[in-house]
Amino acid sequence: MVTRRNFLKTAALASAGMAVSGVNAMPAGSYNRVAGAAKKVNIAYIGIGNRGEQIINDFAKTKMVNVVALCDIDMGAKHTQKVIGMYPKAKQFKDFREMFDKMKNEIDAVTVATPDFSHFPICMMAMAYGKHVYVEKPMARTFLEAELMMKAARKYPNVVTQVGNQGHSEANYFQFKAWQDAGIIKDVTAVTAHMNNPRRWHGWDVNIYKYPEAQPIPSTLDWFNWHCAAPYHEYNEKYHYGEWRSWYDFGMGALGDWGAHILDTVHEFLDLGLPYEVNPVKLTGHNDYFFPTDSTILFRFGPRGEMPACDVTWYDGVNNVPPLPDGYGESAMDANIPASSVGEIVKQKINPGKIIYGKDLIFKGASHGSTLSIIPEAKAKEMQSKLPEVPKSPSNHFENFLLACQGLEKTRSPFEIHGPLSQVFSLGVMAQRLNRKLYFDSRTNQITNDKFANAMLTGIPPRKGWEDFYIV
C-alpha cells in the first residue's frame, strides 16, 4: 500500500505538472463556452453514497466533468452500487491512497463526501498530488487539521479548493455583501444562530459509560480503513452512515454540520476570525462520548477595524429555542436543503437560521442560500426604497469549482475563507466536550486558561501509518 511518505517523493513533480491535461491552460471565457468545450475536468469521486451521490448528481448537471474514478470504503453496499451503475467505465477503488497512486496522471480534481474525520488525510494527499479539491463541510474536525489544510493550500497555490457550503454561491452570499457595502448591514454586535430541528438528534441514553458493543462488520465494508487516522472502534451501527456525526471521536455534532450553512456569510463578511472566548452556557445530556441533546454556546469576538465586538450565540436541540425579537414573524426555511440519510428536514415553528442584531436594524434569515429580511415588517417597508440591487450569482457552487479548475473563476469558499470558520467550530466542540469556558489567544493560537483544552487543539495522535499526513 502506498503511504504518504512514499508519495511525497513524487507529489512535487505531480503538482508542478498538474496542467499537463490542459485543464488549467484554457483561456478565459463564458460559462456557455466552457460547458460546450470538448475538454472536461477529469474528476474522481471519493465517498459515493448518500451525500456523495447527491453532489455527484449536482456535478453531472454541469456537463463539465468526465468521471474517471469512484472510491468508497464500501463499494458493495446498495447505496454505492447505484452510483457505480451510473459510471461503469470509471475505475473503482476502496482506498483513496491506492487510487492516487495508480491514477495520479489521470485525475484533475476530486470531491470528498466522507465523514468529517476523514476529510483531512484525503484532502492533504490530493493537494500534495496537485489535484483540485471539493470537500464537504466542515472541512476538518480539529483546529490543527484546518490549520494544516490552509497551510497546504498556500504551499500549492495552483490547487483549487472549495468547501461544500452551497450558500456561498447563492442569493444570501451576494445579498449580504451588497447590503453591507451599502451600509444596510453595519455595526453588528450580536448574532443568534439556531438549529432546532430533530434531524440531528438520536435519542440515545445520555448516561452512557462505555462505547457501544461490537457488532458484526458488514461483509462489503472495509471497517479498518474507514477510520483513516482516527482511533479504532469496534464496529457498531451507531457509528455508521450519518450517525458518526453524533460522536466526539468522529464528528462535530449539529454545530459543525449546520454552522457552515447558517454562519458562513456572517463569519466572512463581518471578518469575525477567531473568538477570544467560548462559553458552553447550557449543555443538556452532557457526557464523555456523544454530543449533548441541547447546546447553547456563546462565542465572543473582539473589535475588527471599525466593526464593534460581536457575540455569536449558537442554539441547538429540539426544545432549546432562542429568544426571538419583537416582530420576528414567521420562520422561513430554505427549500433547497438536501435530504439526509438520517431523515428529511422537517418544517417547525422555528427553522434553522439566524438573527443578526445591528445598531439600527435587525435581520432574520434561514440557512443555506436563503436571503435575509429586515424585521419587523414595518421597518422592512420603510427601508425598501433604500435597498441596493443584488447581483445574481454567475455560477452555482459546483460550476464555480469547475470553472475555477478551468482558470475562469475563483472559488467562493476556498480553504483560506472557510478554514477559520472550521476552527471556530472545533473550539465550540471542545467547549462542549469539556463543559467549561475557554479563553483563546488568536495571536498565538493557544487556549490560555486550560492546559487540557490547549492540548486538544491538535487532537488525538493519529493511528500508526497516518502520521506523515500531518507534515506539510
TrEMBL record:
Gene source species: Dysgonomonas hofstadii
Keyword hit for Signal: yes
Boundaries of every Gfo/Idh/MocA-like oxidoreductase bacterial type C-terminal domain copy: 213-271
Signal peptide span: 1-25
InterPro entries: Gfo/Idh/MocA-like_OxRdtase_N, Gfo/Idh/MocA_oxidrdct_glycsds, Gfo/Idh/MocA_OxRdtase_bact_C, NAD(P)-bd_dom_sf, TAT_signal, TAT_signal_bac_arc
Signal keyword on record: yes
Family matches, as PANTHER family: BCDNA.GH03377, OXIDOREDUCTASE-RELATED
GO molecular function, one term: nucleotide binding
Protein's UniProt name: Putative dehydrogenase
Domain Gfo/Idh/MocA-like oxidoreductase N-terminal: 42-161
UniProtKB keywords: Signal
